């Protein structure tokens, strides 16, 4: 069975975006160690899952990086060439290459994807999409990159939980840029 990994940047107080959706709190200047860590994390991935809100910027941003020189284009080829599924009930047509838009039952589709042959699957967000994955217990690995900032309020991926979510720490690593990588698995 394929694993579904979540990779997401968070604040110290577990927000994934400011209350207005802003991301100006994120550290974008990643150091070589963090880039290597993410490259290793995504190496076995052969499918990317996105919610519509994140897909709007994510796919275009990575595609535009293909023309940049190294190191600005690090990871761009992997992100552009890996097939993607964009989960949306409102998006009528697909304007991206290597992407499929899916508006049906999330749980059914994720379970079908996990039971197919292939490499790992990774989800990047946005907040509502990831909340649905968490709420339906679909994530096998949580890779949270904690930025050294607290917002006090914002968008969370854990707000839809009906009860507590028990996780076990499977690994952690701090990076020179200030981000702490936390790797959790469901208990």
Q: Count of helices?
A: 5
Total strands: 10
Structural class: alpha/beta
Based on CA atoms alone, the radius of gyration comes out at: 16 Å
Percent range of helical residues: 25-40%
Uncertain spans: none
N- to C-terminal distance: 18 Å
Strand order of the largest sheet: 5-4-3-6-1-7-10-9
The string of secondary-structure elements, in order, is: EEHEHHEEHEHEEEE
What is the typical, i.e. mean, pLDDT?
94
The shape, in one word, is globular
- Percent of residues in beta strands: 25-35%
Largest sheet: 8 strands, mixed
Q: What keyword list fits this structure?
A:
alpha/beta, two-stranded antiparallel ribbon, globular
Please describe the topology of this protein:
Blueprint lengths: L3 E7 L4 E3 L14 H11 L2 E7 H14 L10 H6 L2 E4 L11 E4 L3 H10 L4 E6 L1 H9 L5 E6 L8 E2 L10 E8 L5 E7 L1
Parallel strand pairs: 1-6, 1-7, 3-4, 3-6, 4-5
Antiparallel strand pairs: 2-8, 7-10, 9-10
Descriptive notes:
By secondary structure, the chain is α/β, with parallel strands linked by helices. The protein has five helices and ten strands; from the N terminus they run ββαβααββαβαββββ. The protein has helices at 32-42, 52-65, 76-81, 106-115, 127-135; strands at 4-10, 15-17, 45-51, 84-87, 99-102, 120-125, 141-146, 155-156, 167-174, 180-186. The longest helix has 14 residues, at 52-65.
